[in-house]
Structures are given as C-alpha cells and as structure tokens.
Amino acid sequence: MLLKLYLVASISILLFSTSCSNDSSDSSGKLEVTGISKSVVDDPLVDGDREVDVPTDIINAGNYYIIRGSGFATLKSISFNGLESYFNPTFVTDNAIVVLVDEKTPYYNEMDEMKIVTNIGTLSYKVAIRPPSPNIKGFPINPNAGDIITITGEYFLRPVVNFGTTVVEPIEASLTEIKVKVPDDYKYKYLSITNVSGTTVASQAFGSAIYDDAFTNIWGWNEFWDGTNSFDFAYAKDASQGSKCIEWKSGEWDGWNIAIAFWNFTDTDKFKAVRFSVKGEKAGKVKFFVNGDADNNFKVVEFKTDTWTYIEIPFSDLGNPTTLSKVGWQEFGGFGGNNILLDDIGLVLK
Question: Which residues form the signal peptide (predicted)?
Fold first, then answer.
C-alpha cells in the first residue's frame, strides 16, 4: 500500500509541470513520442536503490511507464504489441501519458510496437516489449534440505533462483515451472526469482508455514468449538498459494484453534506477525485470536467473496505474547454463518 501511495504521489509530481504548461483539453502540435521512462525502478534485493522517472528503451509488461511527447490530450487508446493497456485520463496531459502496461501483453516473436490513438491521428512507435517480472504462484514453504521442489508461476524466462543470497541452479525450467534442489542453508530465508525483466521475492520465508496445501511440522492439532462444522483441509477448487486450501463451513459465531507443535517448532521468537489469506462464500468477517483467548488477544478482519484477502497481524496487535501456543478464528459476520476459505497460514519474520 505504501508503494502504491508513493507511486501515485510520484506520478502526480512528474505530471505537475507538464499539466501546468498546457492545461487545454485540445492537443497542440504534432503527435509524437520524445521519450519513455519507467515510473519506479526498485530491485527488491537491494535496499535504498529506488529511483523514479528512469529513462528506458524497454517496456516490461505489468509496470507503469511515462510516455512523453506531444498531441496526447485527446488520447483514445494506447496498445503494446496489439493489446490495449489501461490508462487513467487523470494521468494524461498533452505532453505525457502514464500507463500501466497490461501484464498479458504479448512479448515473444511480436512486432515490438506501441500504438497511440488520439483524435488527431494514430502513431506507431518502435520499442522493445519484454515480459513482466516473475509471478510466483506456489512452492513448498517448509521443505527439507536436499528436497527437489517445484516452483510454479509465470514468466520464468531464463530464471535465476535464490534462497536468500544462495544461488541455486534449476534442474528443469519452463515458463511456468522450475525444479530446484533445496540447499542446506535455506531456513528462514526468502525465495527470489529473477528473469530477463526483473526480480520477484516471495512473501513467505522458508520454514514459516503452518498450513501449505496441508498442515506442516509447525501444526500440532486442531480444536473445534462446534463438532457440526464441516472442514476440508485439502480443498482443491481454489487456493491463494499452492494448489489447496482449507474450506470451513461455519455456523454463526463458531470457531476453531490450531495448536502449535512445540515438540517440532521452538523458533517463534524469530517472527513478528501471523499471516493468512481468507475468502468467503459471502463477504464477511472473522475474528483472529491467539493462545485460545478469543476475548482479549484478537483482531477482527474483513474479507471478500471474489478475491483472496491477505491478512498480516503483528504480535503487537495481539497483546505481544511471549509464547505463541495457538492461533484461532471465529466466524464474525453476524448473518448466520458462512463458508470460509483459509490458506497460506503462517508466520512473518522479524
């Protein structure tokens, strides 16, 4: 969210001088492109390197760009390799266009063309079009050293795989799957994948999952408030991470706990928050609580029915427990119960 606000603020500043010099709704001068800049350049593996408005001659799909020139005021459409991209008219002046290049823009064996259509004409402009940065969809979060694991996602074009700072050579790789061997020093480090366009870092640290397509070694047992609730702990019709999630058919105000297996897991001091993703048959709420105390150490969160909602709750919002023995949820919609999906349950590193 902070990055989005930073981006919007940066775009507003970048366009301010241009819009002040020409605030007319009519295009002036000829239709032409004089330069292209990437709105934000930031390597997630390098702290403090973020730059804004960086000139470039390459378009990576899935990113914001600033197109500079003239004749843009009556912009009707902008496309890359034949696919139109969304633009917000608020971020268009006669001399600049801010555009989010569609992630699905074709990039292989294409014409490398940007086309701008306005009321005064159409301009075709030659520019290299490349794929987005990698999209990591799923991987085993709690593997063992030496395991051969499969990472699924998109845009794995000539991928470089890192476990923390350890580079791991892929055993097999396609655009959507990578097989690698887990190195010895993997635990509590982040997976990152770099392709020809950039780097993506997974949001889950290795060894941090309580549920990842199935319960992990951190799980001890489940405690159910109401035995009539139905659970499917390998629901395969939807998932936010990996290929399965938990389907919980809950009555109104019902709840359950996951107990942490201290005979397998003693590293809660390395973490600062609990994470999970949630979705419902009906948009609603759940109360999240820790250590079995649903009356004190809790936080109520909302979720949607059409998209997964990622939730991250700091221990500071839960009474700063010195020991984490249980995590739990209570249906809190207030409308008679709900079918709730939960996934990617785990902990967040400090």
Answer: 1-21
